[in-house]
Design brief:
heterodimer; A: FAD/NAD(P)-binding domain; FAD/NAD(P)-binding domain; 7-stranded mixed sheet; globular; B: alpha/beta; 2 domains; 8-stranded mixed sheet; two-stranded antiparallel ribbon
Chain lengths: 420, 466
């Protein structure tokens, strides 16, 4: 039986951030890192760029063997966890191997969520969650002439752009009424949709799929509206669900993801969870949610690592703030906090700049005198500074007028005075 | 691990917003001085008119790198620079979302992110600034080189939280090196564990525990023995102000007069701190101690401190210096000279050592208290070399802060009346006059006769007080 002081299950951002924090304090304690895939550690966020060919699949790894040696990490590939036993402090792999731990981090990420559409199970569809998925999709795109993307989230939108650039006729089918609904409101999403349409991508929003039929590798979709669509490539990008199937009957509580407290501890002793698999505190409301973004994985992984190693700089996790950056067809956008649909913004004070002719959109949402949401397309604002103003709940009372008229300069001024 | 690095620091008072640094940066990186390409940006504060710098901090735990899905951002362990690899970058912009300082920004002209790369070690912005507002700080170099010296004190000691002594002992022994015999008479330094217990010592060099009265005499004897057998070994004393200026003064004075070869460090915490905070002859005027209490009549010490470093100058010591560990670079330079001059005779260093426990301030404030004492001229930093009789300020303070900027930091001065503060300010001013005359900086009292100088000292230290 392998024994390690720190056992990290999952080798993407949450797991690696935890290791970075552990190694600052403890250079000696043994660390074992498990990756269920047969590859070096990589980030799922890179996959759309593998599909588009922006980056070669062999060059996406976050660490190489030399790095792993430097940090004294024992790394196991193809190590799929099938059971965690908190009582005996052991983890069992599909291969039959067992690993004993003193402290365990579950950072197993998420799997694609496949919607229960009749016929989908038997259709030859693609997902985009692993390197293997990305390679398959890239390869399939070389022979296909048309594609349908199910789901207009970030992965779906990225995939659509890559496939369109590869010369395919692309349609996006989204059940909700506009694209990227978590990140943008209808107006901003409309601008994005317009840009996609101009690039020849067919976007069908508010379109539920009732039936999928397939023959000879091609798929035919029937929509609720009565419309029929067909293509020789189908990509399902309707979200992800935390990978928790290996957890059974234990003190590790699972809701949508693994429930964790403010330092990423699960209900079981000496077990932490972080990243896409964890359901942690939200920033804006008291509920716990699975956030599923890269920056969240990094912060949660770091928090878990600091707690695992007992570092006194540990601060409770402030709660997840939904945020992301998104670049499409040469346009740059980002969204942080309460910036999505009209419902979440209805009681907020909003500063809006919308210049359709120059494809610019900038929305700042305030609750009282603090910033709570920013969403932008082709804006010069610094996303990182806006995020800090939101996260630190900086009181803008004294400077709000100046801030509204020059948020970029005032934001930079505020943050450059803080040196940590 | 634990390495320090170069950094660009800015002196905001010197910056007039001319933006030459931006142009130099853009030009260095693209051959085009259009500031859209600049990695360094300035932003003006409309209220004060001043400028703030927007620049990569080269963070220790860089969030940009931790959040990069393409491993295009990495911290260079050798230089500390967070490097951006254009070949690996996929343009996702997550770095711009997770950097709190806009240290990595999007450049619309190139459709790429850009950040400071330190220009390979010699930043163009620093060279371009006509007002010296930007500087490459080399403090980390010193830290690295000192870090490589052997720590001759075992891990752990029983000093109070925030004590100056650990910093002092470790750094002094690192610099003076292993070919040393240490004497630690009764006092805090012995008390924190330097002499050890049960036959074991906490220093990795020979250490002994003389009486409070005979430290200099015993070291003189040891040195003479080593001289006789032909070995050149450094003699080093860590004595408190009691062991140097009070009880130990006769043996120190004698050894100094005889020119005994040693480094004698007075660790001046301005009283008998390890026996219950009693006053000593170096306790300053007005300070509370358990024997100079504060009540309806008494308001702390009624006498001025003995000007111990100047008394050692009067002994014709080969070398005399004052030090404060808020100025470590200065202290290291003085240790080097003390080591050199101790081959010839007495080298005396008077180290100002604030005591959180006895002076009543928070342990976290040690360095701040040590710094403010210097910036108010309460503790001027200087050195005296007997050869040529030269006194030189090593950290001249041109515009000293009022003494209250220092006094207000320590509880032992909390009760001071305005008259008492005024007296302390006068004493500081007089002391500076004397020192400046020694340094040849004050023509109005340029009288060179030692007797005349001594009378000024005497007058300053014996003036009666209310």
């Amino acid at each position: 039986m392998y024994h390690s002081k720190y056992l990290i299950v999952g080798s993407s951002h949450a797991g690696l951030s935890a290791i970075e924090s552990i190694r600052i304090q403890d250079m000696e304690g043994s660390i074992t890192l498990l990756n269920q895939e047969d590859s070096l550690p990589y980030s799922p966020t890179i996959l759309p760029y593998v599909v588009s060919g922006k980056v070669d699949a062999s060059k996406v790894y976050l660490l190489n063997q030399n790095d792993l040696d430097t940090y004294r990490i024992t790394f196991k590939r193809g190590a799929k966890v099938v059971k965690v036993d908190p009582l005996s402090h052991t983890v069992a792999l599909q291969s039959g191997e067992n690993f004993e731990y003193e402290k365990l981090l579950l950072a197993t990420g998420a799997d694609p969520a496949i919607p229960p559409i009749p016929g989908l199970k038997n259709a030859p569809f693609h997902v985009l969650r692993t390197i293997e998925n990305a390679n398959q999709l890239r390869q399939a795109a070389q022979t296909a002439t048309s594609a349908i993307i199910l789901g207009a989230g970030l992965i779906g939108m990225h995939a659509a752009e890559s496939l369109a650039k590869a010369g395919l006729r692309v349609s996006i089918v989204e059940a909700l009424s506009y694209v990227l609904p978590g990140y943008f409101d209808a107006q901003a999403a409309g601008l994005i949709q317009k840009i996609f349409s101009e690039q020849g991508i067919n976007i069908l929003t508010g379109s539920a799929v009732t039936q999928i039929a397939s023959s000879n590798g091609a798929c035919a979709l029937s929509l609720e509206s009565g419309l029929d669509l067909s293509a020789d490539l189908l990509v399902v990008a309707t979200g992800v669900k935390p990978r928790v199937s290996y957890i059974s009957r234990s003190k590790i509580e699972v809701d949508q993801g693994i429930l964790v407290n403010e330092t990423m501890r699960t209900g079981a002793n000496d077990i932490w969870a972080a990243g896409d698999v964890a359901q942690a505190k939200s920033f804006f409301d008291p509920t716990k949610a699975v956030q599923g973004t890269l920056p969240t994985a990094v912060e949660q992984g770091r928090t878990a690592g600091l707690d695992m190693v007992g570092d006194p700089v540990l601060k409770p996790y402030p709660g997840g703030i939904p945020m992301n950056t998104y670049k499409f067809f040469g346009h740059r956008s980002f969204s942080i906090g309460l910036a999505g649909d009209a419902e979440t913004c209805k009681d907020l004070e909003v500063d809006l700049t919308f210049l359709p002719s120059s494809q610019q959109y900038q929305k700042l949402a305030y609750e009282g005198n603090t910033l709570v949401g920013v969403s932008c397309i082709n804006s010069q604002l610094d996303p990182g500074i806006m995020y800090q103003l939101i996260k630190r709940q900086i009181d803008l009372t004294e400077i709000k007028k100046g801030f509204s008229s020059a948020p970029r300069e005032m934001g930079r001024l505020l943050m450059s005075r803080i040196w940590c | 691990m634990g390495k320090g690095y170069h950094t660009i620091v800015r002196h905001p008072e010197k910056c007039d917003g001319c933006r030459k640094c931006l142009e130099a940066c853009a030009d260095y990186h693209t051959g085009n001085s259009n500031t859209v390409h600049s990695r360094i940006q300035l932003v003006q504060d409309n209220e004060t008119g001043g400028f703030e710098l927007v620049l990569c901090h080269q963070c220790g735990e860089p969030r940009c790198a931790m959040n990069c899905p393409a491993a295009a951002l990495t911290k260079d362990e050798e230089t500390g620079v967070v490097r951006w690899d254009e070949q690996k970058c996929v343009g996702c912009q997550l770095c711009t979302l997770t950097c709190p300082f806009a240290g990595i920004t999007y450049n619309p002209a190139t459709d790429q992110v850009m950040k400071c790369d330190f220009c390979g070690g010699d930043p163009a912005c620093v060279k371009a600034c006509p007002r010296g507002a930007l500087e490459v700080k080399i403090g980390a170099d010193l830290y690295n080189s000192w870090g490589d010296l052997e720590d001759l004190f075992v891990p752990g000691m029983s000093a109070c939280l925030g004590c100056n002594s650990e910093l002092l002992i470790r750094h002094t022994l690192r610099r003076i090196g292993p070919n040393t015999v240490v004497a630690t008479p009764p006092g805090c330094i012995a008390g924190v564990g330097s002499v050890g217990y049960n036959g074991l010592t906490c220093t990795k060099v020979p250490v002994f525990h003389p009486l409070l009265t005979n430290t200099a005499a015993m070291l003189a004897g040891a040195r003479r023995y080593y001289n006789r057998i032909g070995r050149d070994v450094t003699m080093l004393a860590f004595a408190g102000d009691g062991g140097a200026a009070d009880v130990g003064f006769q043996s120190l004075s004698g050894a100094a007069e005889r020119g005994e070869q040693m480094i004698f460090i007075c660790v001046d915490n301005e009283g008998y701190m390890n026996t219950g905070v009693q006053r000593s002859s170096t306790t300053p005027y007005g300070a509370w101690t358990s024997t100079t209490p504060v009540g309806s009549v008494l308001r702390g010490k009624t006498r001025d401190a003995k000007p111990m470093p100047l008394l050692m100058v009067m002994h014709h010591c080969e070398y005399v210096a004052t030090a404060s560990l808020a100025f470590m670079e200065d202290y290291y330079a003085k240790l080097d000279k003390a080591a050199k001059f101790s081959k010839k005779g007495m080298a005396y260093i008077h180290v100002f050592s604030p005591c959180p426990t006895g002076w009543r301030f928070s342990p976290s404030m040690l360095i701040e208290v040590s710094r403010k004492a210097v910036e108010t001229n309460m503790v001027p930093l200087w050195e005296y070399v007997n050869e040529g009789a030269r006194l030189r300020f090593t950290y001249p303070v041109d515009n000293p802060l009022p003494v209250n900027a220092y006094l207000s930091l320590a509880g032992k001065y909390r009760h001071l009346s305005e008259e008492q503060i005024a007296h302390i300010q006068d004493t500081v001013n007089n002391q500076m006059k004397i020192l400046k005359s020694f340094a040849g900086e004050a023509p109005e009292i340029a009288a060179t006769e030692v007797a005349a100088r001594l009378s000024v000292i005497r007058e300053a230290s014996t003036r009666p007080h209310a």
